[in-house]
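Subgroup meeting minutes
Present: P.N., E.W., G.H.
Scribe: E.W.

1. P.N. recapped why we're keeping a running log of single-chain structure predictions: easier to compare across weeks, and new members can see raw inputs and outputs side by side.
2. G.H. added today's entry (521 aa).
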Amino acid sequence: MPRRGVFTLGQHYPCLGASKRRAAHIYSDNLDKECPLVTPEPFSHGLRIDSSHPCIQPWATDNNGPVATTSTDSPGPSRGDSSADPSGGSRGHAAVDRRSPPGGAASFIDRERLLADIDELLRIPSLGGTPAEVDAQRHLADRWAGEGLEVTTWDIDVDATAARSDFPGMEVERESALGVVARFPGSGGGRTLLFDGHTDVVPPGDIGAWTGDPFIPRTVQRDGRDAIVARGACDMKAGLVAAWEALRAVRQSGVRLRGDVLLCPVSGEEDGGLGTYAALEHLLGTPIAGCIVPEPTDLDLVPANAGALTFRLTVNGAAIHASRRSEGVSAVEKFVPVLAALSHLEAVRNASVDELMQRWPVAYPLSIGTVHAGDWASTVPDLLVAEGRLGVALDESADNARAELEAAVADVCRSDPWLREHPVTVEWWGGQFHAGRTDPNAGIVSLVRDTHTRAAGHAPETYGGPYGSDLRLLVGMGGIPTVQYGPGDTRVAHAPDEYVNIEDVVMCASVLADVIVDFCS
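Output recorded in log:
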């Protein structure tokens, strides 16, 4: 008989006296109890258990094979071994399906705990570049250390990091930033899964447009559903806490993971990607097989993002009293043909787009966000400064996108006598988000798709996002297959009364719990 009467899943025990009898080592809700059970069914036909047993919730097998976890004593590849497929497939253990059954890890999601932790994080006004941005990072580090995770923190040298040639840019001043990585270690031989999510938020804008304090969360009805309203609720604190709750549920379920799970909250995503850039350097040498970024996708799958490059245009004129404006040169008037040329360029760049981007009316927007000109109402303005963002197409280099905008501006200058002598200058500054993509059929994408489909009863849509994100750093710099999947709609992400639907947050946490079990077991 096996040691202590505990049986290893899939192992044949002739001493049991039944042909092809197989056994399972099942864990009860009480993590200190082990519940040995036996099934006469062949392992290849699925695990079948008497649902009357006190430790078991009844569930039905599907056509995808057996559902359970293997003993950690069985052999497997070590961390970093090439048999752990970084694309998300499983080469060394293809014959075993380790998915947790409905009512498995996901059943340990604690809704009230989840909402309480979201509330705590939303009350930290973690605007980029403020001390509260560091406070949010430290809050999570302290909480996770208190829960027994292996937490590493480090002070990011902002000036030295920003001086690097491949730094992705920054649009707000920062004196400090805190890196945080929390690790739940597996037993070894499995794939490591990373959750990356930003804790910084954008300013609330016009406070009068909000129905309450942006940093005091409240529950309201949106389209007949309960929703949390606060700055950062949608983008993306609720999604980050959902990943945290998913890991807690897995730990409470007693499922033995082979691979590690990493939680990585980051700063500076909204204005370039400082936090993820620094985290990838910190994690250099750690074999990470897949990453999920719980950004707001309305629980769809976003395995690709367009890029977004911030630029500044400076238009010079000649000032004079407005009563004699015809003798001066208005920088505002000289900007008009430049703006028209940029609108034409946007149309050309969006004439044919990648299949993943075809759902968007404008997949790669070119937009002017700010215009400043003049300093006196009765003076012809001699200077105009405009700032905007240029969308970068999937698989397009940032250098090519920059060159196209610079060429369009230069063409306008050549056609105007004043601008030929006083050309518009183009400056690239702030966030420089390159485009990035993961194959929509990569293992991590397919796993999230299949898990969501089982949980929600319908398949999520798969498409590319027209916005820049840290996905491009995780894929391009880190070489990690990455997908965005999280609660919330980007339509309300930076808007007044930003919100996220509570049931979508709970669904996200449930799906991610089962994804962790499948990916890391």
